[in-house]
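Here is the promised in-class demo. Please do not try to memorize the tokens; focus on the logic of going from shape to residues.
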């Protein structure tokens, strides 16, 4: 009883059972795990299995806990969907700590999680990817500029922090030596136009036609009423396929 004190206001609010369990769990101070406390168990609020305290995974600042097996599945599914794992509690926004996840994640998945966290931390306008396809490392504009530290930086040159090769941040290609960005882009445009013109000229000579659906150039059979792509791989076999069928597996 509270002597000399009275309530001035009260209201009724419905609370889900799982929320009560979460609140209760977060207020409990657990003893250090010793041989005597190994027998103590806690209920995982995902699988509802009684689990030894030593096998419960604490999320971090939110104090929610789940068994290692459930957390492993939760983190893996989130990574497969391309997102950083958060606390499974539906109204909790705490992110799962990568360092603590290393106890149940493979090295490959841990690296993916680090990459996802980095992607989320860099604003879209500040993201830079290495121009070399075999690398494609993600960096921020600021950190890659600091890493470059050369005369190339003033004209768009950047040094990848992972593969350490030079690329152009403006043209998004490997560094074009002895050529500025303007001249390089002009040469690329001219080269593309020349290639396109050469292809059209060859198509006219060979009587090739462009498929209306897949846009590939196809060769016509002389005795066919319908345009056919003469080389198309279907289930391991090379067959004639109608060009207007929209098939994309033309080789």
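The designed amino acids, position by position:
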């Amino acid at each position: 009883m509270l002597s000399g004190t009275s309530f001035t206001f009260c209201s009724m609010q419905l609370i889900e059972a799982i929320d009560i369990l979460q609140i209760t769990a977060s207020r409990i101070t657990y003893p250090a795990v010793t041989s005597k406390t190994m027998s103590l168990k806690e209920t995982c609020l995902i699988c509802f299995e009684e689990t030894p305290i030593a096998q419960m995974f604490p999320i971090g600042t939110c104090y929610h806990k789940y068994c290692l097996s459930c957390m492993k599945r939760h983190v893996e599914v989130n990574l497969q969907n391309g997102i950083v794992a958060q606390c499974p509690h539906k109204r909790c926004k705490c992110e799962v700590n990568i360092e603590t996840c290393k106890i149940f994640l493979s090295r490959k998945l841990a690296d993916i999680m680090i990459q996802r966290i980095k992607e989320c931390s860099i604003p879209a306008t500040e993201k830079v990817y290495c121009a070399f396809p075999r690398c494609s490392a993600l960096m921020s504009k600021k950190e890659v500029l600091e890493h470059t530290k050369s005369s190339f930086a003033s004209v768009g040159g950047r040094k990848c922090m992972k593969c350490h090769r030079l690329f152009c941040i403006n043209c998004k290609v490997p560094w074009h030596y002895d050529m500025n960005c303007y001249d390089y882009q002009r040469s690329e445009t001219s080269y593309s136009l020349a290639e396109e013109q050469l292809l059209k000229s060859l198509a006219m000579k060979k009587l090739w036609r462009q498929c209306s659906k897949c846009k590939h150039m196809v060769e016509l059979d002389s005795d066919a009423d319908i345009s056919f792509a003469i080389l198309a791989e279907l289930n391991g076999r090379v067959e004639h396929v109608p060009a207007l069928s929209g098939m994309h597996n033309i080789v």
